[in-house]
Fold:
Amino acid sequence: MAKVAAAVLRRLPSVDEVMRHATLVQAKERFGRSAVVAVVRRIIADARANGDVSNNDDFASRAAALLEEQARPNLRPVFNLTGTVLHTNLGRALLAEAAVDAAQVAMRNAVALEFDLGGGRRGERDEIIRGLLCELTGAEDATAVNNNAAAILLVLNTLSRGREAIVSRGELIEIGGAFRMPEIMSRAGA
Structure:
C-alpha cells in the first residue's frame, strides 16, 4: 500500500506546476495569487488523500470552479412565494428605482452625511431625513434606525423608562434571531 501511495505522490503535479496553467494565470488576476494558491493546495491535498492522479488540466479546472464558487455572493435573489409580502427572512421591502439610484450614488461617492454644507461645520445625520419624516407622519421630530430591535429599544427607553410596558404574549418573540422582547425591554429600562 505504501508503494501505491508513493507512486501516486510522484504523479501529482506540484502547486507551482498547476499555478502555471493558463486558466490559473488568468484566475490570479481576478482572485489574487494567495487565493489561487490556497485553492490549488487544497485540491492537491484532497487528491493525495483520495489517491487521485489527475493531470494539470483537471486540477486547474477544479481550482477555477472552486474559486468561482467561493466568489459567488451569499445573498442571492429569490422569489418570495410565501404569501407574506414583507417576509423578514427574505430581506426587506423592495425599493423604487429612484431610491436604488440614490443609494448607488451615495455608495460610490463621499457625501455630506454629517456635514452642514451651508455652515461649513459638523452636521447631524438625522437632518437629512427629519423634514421628510415629519411631513410624512405629522410628527414633531423624527429619526430613523435600520432594524426593529433598535426602534423598539428607542421607543421603550423614551416612553417607558422606569415604568411598566405591557406586551401581548404573541409579541414575546425573537427579533432577528438574537434579541428577545423581554431583554430589549430590560435594556430600555421598562
